[in-house]
Write a structure and sequence with these properties.
The chain is of the alpha+beta class. It is 30% helix and 36% strand. Strand 2 and strand 3 form a beta hairpin. The chain is globular. The chain starts with a helix and ends with a strand.
């Protein structure tokens, strides 16, 4: 098994308590933009009143992660997240946060997880943020 598979298994087996990100882990069930196949992508999720926000940071690399393109092409997906102490599957719609709202969203994420601020310093791209809203 690879790193992603190990984290997904640990997340599911421990109800979100034992993995690299703890209960903040969200597993995106993204649908391939070209293949149409489902891909599981563990990412940090930042809960808010409308659902979760996720950041397509790829550690500050120059290009977006593959799942970014998948969410743009197929925004209606499922996620696995910790809700009331259990890992549950939640249908969501992914919407990219744009304009001035992006800065507010990104600043809130950096306040909660400062390493995301460093990612901006590593790249010239505007690191995308998606709002995942329950359907």
């Amino acid at each position: 098994m690879g790193w992603n598979d190990d984290n997904i298994k640990a997340f599911r087996d421990s109800k979100g308590t034992k993995n690299f990100w703890g209960e903040k882990l969200v597993i995106l069930h993204s649908i391939g933009a070209r293949s149409g196949k489902t891909h599981l992508n563990p990412v940090v999720g930042f809960p808010n009143g409308d659902g979760w926000r996720v950041v397509a940071s790829k550690g500050g690399s120059p290009e977006n992660p593959a799942w970014y393109h998948n969410l743009r092409a197929n925004p209606s997906i499922d996620i696995e997240a910790v809700v009331d102490g259990d890992v549950v599957t939640v249908p969501v719609t992914a919407t990219e946060i744009l304009g001035e709202e992006w800065r507010t969203a990104y600043d809130a994420i950096v306040a909660e997880a400062p390493q995301f601020g460093g990612y901006l310093e590593k790249t010239d791209r505007r690191i995308p943020v998606f709002q995942l809203t329950r359907r």
